[in-house]
Amino acid sequence: MVKFIYERILIIKMGDKFVRIINSSEITNIVKDMCIEANIYLGNDVKNAIRAYEKEEESILGKNILNILMKNCEIAEEKQIPICQDTGMAVFFVSIGQDVHIEGMNITDAINEGVRQGYLEGYLRKSVVYPIDRINTKDNTPAIIHYDIVEGDNITIEFAPKGFGSENMSKLKMLKPSDGVNGIKQFIIETVKEAGPNPCPPIVVGVGIGGTVEKCAQIAKKSLLRELGNHNEDETIKQLEIDILKDINNLGIGPQGLGGNTTALAVNIEAFPTHIAGLPVVVNINCHASRHKKVKI
Ligand code: SF4
Question: What is the pTM of this model?
Answer without folding.
Answer: 0.94
